[in-house]
Amino acid sequence: MYMDLVELHIEKQAKRKQKEDSLARYSEEWSVKGERLRGLRRQHGLLARFIAEEIGISTSTLYKFERGLYVQRVKIIERAYERTLNTKRLQDENARLLWQVRHPPAQEQRIIVEVDGKRYEVPRDPNVQSQHRRTPRSII
Fold first, then answer.
1. DSSP class of residue 124?
2. pLDDT of residue 131
3. C-alpha to C-alpha distance for 12 and 17, rounded to whole angstroms
4. Which of 23, 34, 118, 124 gets the highest tally of CB atoms within 10 A of its CB?
5. pLDDT band per the 50, 70, 90 thresholds, residue 23
6. Where are the beta strands (DSSP E) in 1-140?
């Protein structure tokens, strides 16, 4: 019985040591990934609270992940975080393209000028008002 307890204690210590080694090995990698994703989040102007709600984790867990600290299910969080940022990036791109479709660039207007019997087509300066004015019509 006593030997079983000793073996169990030694097993737990070995597992704890293995976990600590694993955390030390991946800590730098998680830190780099978390910092990169935090930079993207800030670049898009997103709050950590928004990302955390989208992923389904607490804000404090997200902050730990961004600082490279150990959190459970780190791979799942990383993939969900990237997917959320990609979705936001696609939404931004779609909004930009939709705006461009709804607001196409103004085509250059050209006017025809006649000088000495020759006709010239020149670009119209948008800052210059037309000299031609319509004469008001009488309503009578």
1. P
2. 60
3. 9
4. 34
5. low
6. 110-115, 118-123
Q: How many CB atoms lie within 10 A of CB 41?
A: 20
Tell me how far apart the alpha carbons of residues 136 and 127 are, in angstroms, rounded to a whole number.
Answer: 24
What CA–CA distance (Å, rounded) separates 53 from 57?
6
pTM of the model: 0.48
Cβ-based neighbours of 112, under 8 Å, separated by 6 or more = 119, 120, 121
In the chain, domain spans = 9-102
Tell me the fold of 9-102: 434 Repressor (Amino-terminal Domain) (1.10.260)
Alpha carbons 31 and 130: distance in angstroms, whole number: 63
Which of 47, 41, 42, 45 minimizes the C-alpha distance to 81? Answer: 41
The answer to whether the beta carbons of residues 112 and 119 sit under 8 Å apart is yes
**Residue 95 amino acid letter:** A
Backbone angles phi, psi at 115, to 5 degrees: -130, 125
pLDDT in tens, 93-135: 888 888 888 877 666 677 788 888 888 887 776 566 656 555 6
Phi, psi of 7 (to 5 degrees): -60, -40
